[in-house]
Amino acid sequence: MSNDTEAEALRLDAAEPGHRHLFHVPPADGGRYPEAAYLAGNSLGLQPRATRDELLADLDAWSRLGVEGHLAAERPWLPYHELLTAPAARLVGALPTETVVMNSLTVNLHLLMVSFYRPAGERTRIVIEDSAFPSDSYAVRSQARFHGLDPDTTVVRLTPRPGEDTLRTEDVTGYLAAEGHTVALVLLGGVNYLTGELMDIPAITAAARAAGAVVGWDLAHAAGNVPLSLHDWDVDFAAWCSYKYLNSGPGALAGVFVHERHHGDATLPRFEGWWSTAAATRFQMAPVSRPPATVEAWQISNPPIFAMGPVRTSLELFDSVGMPALRARSLRLTGYLERLLDEVTADRPLRVITPREPRRRGCQLSVRIGAGSANELTRRLRHEHGVIADAREPDVVRFAPVPLYSTYHDCWRVAEALAATVPGVAR
Ligand SMILES: Cc1ncc(COP(=O)(O)O)c(C=O)c1O
């Protein structure tokens, strides 16, 4: 890569600085720049600078107030989770009554499947993508077993066509048109963790619902990455984690969406605890719950306040910048990285497998390597160039220029590091 392109990257950054100053960027572990080029926000987002102080303020309330903090803290703990509801709803295009932050992602998927996976008669199948994140695969297989069904025949794994890397929308809708009468649940990743493909959520949701199936989305790689309109798209349910694009820290609390048409439906099975009953009835100590007609009926336990703080801080940041502005920057950054990767991959055993159309992807670009190990390549990128990406064995390396804190210069460093690390082949 030439110095000209580096100068261009620096010019672009000067013209469009983004919000990097709001984050802690790790130091580089090699190479000639002090800060890492951090392209792994699709795995774990960086820490917002505001998080520590906000968390300390919540801890101070505990030290000063003890149990009184439930009502007397500056941000009282009893209704604390409500502070997260409206910004989370805005992020995913939902009504506040449809969104709640609780638990972790796979736990939430299970709690939602308690309600929304109800195999009956010949309608027993669960449709996932073959490249679903393993946790989802394990979750749906265990749900099938829980219902006394054989996971090998109950779980259908949709694969791309021969020679293709990603699913076409028609691959999903075609299956639903042909086999929909056997499908109880469609559970797909909104953005696929491996390929970075953004599925056509509204089209697939409509096809699944037309086939009489329930449709849920794992939005781990979509929330905070791409604009979402879950309510208008008529999605039945969705869940997402907050430690990737939502920058809320390792294992951070997750989000849940349940469409309002399911609220208050007493026929839906649901697991309950004291947080499932309406807030006004919570301390009446009654033996029978009175769940609200909102998604909060899916809550079970009282929420961990110190885990909620970082999610609140992050959601406030998303609110202040706004998804439309982030998506616009994301399209520019990822398009820029794609152009640089096109140059590097042209004469190397590397291939971008993420769809080329910007509307079919978020910020992540996945590169399939034709030789060597993905782990070894990311190790070298990190230690020789200070570029942090992640490997999905055996042969995929993922790069996510995150619009909040990644820069054009980070993208340039990725391309330069790949060019220096992977030998070219003569053409
Ligand atoms: C798409 C997807 N689903 C599920 C999970 C698992 O999430 P958790 O461990 O938070 O349940 C991940 C984790 O990276 C993921 O990427």
Automatic annotation (TrEMBL):
Positions carrying N6-(pyridoxal phosphate)lysine: K244
Annotated residues for binding of pyridoxal 5'-phosphate: L105, T106, F133, P134, S135, D136, D218, H221, Y243, W274, N302
Keywords: Hydrolase, Pyridine nucleotide biosynthesis, Pyridoxal phosphate
Catalytic activity from the UniProt record: 3-hydroxy-L-kynurenine + H2O = 3-hydroxyanthranilate + L-alanine + H(+); L-kynurenine + H2O = anthranilate + L-alanine + H(+)
InterPro entries the record matches: Kynureninase, PyrdxlP-dep_Trfase, PyrdxlP-dep_Trfase_major, PyrdxlP-dep_Trfase_small
Alphabetical list of Pfam families matching this protein: KYNU_C (PF22580)
Cofactor entry: pyridoxal 5'-phosphate
Biological role stated in the UniProt entry: Catalyzes the cleavage of L-kynurenine (L-Kyn) and L-3-hydroxykynurenine (L-3OHKyn) into anthranilic acid (AA) and 3-hydroxyanthranilic acid (3-OHAA), respectively.
Protein name: Kynureninase
Encoding gene (name): kynU
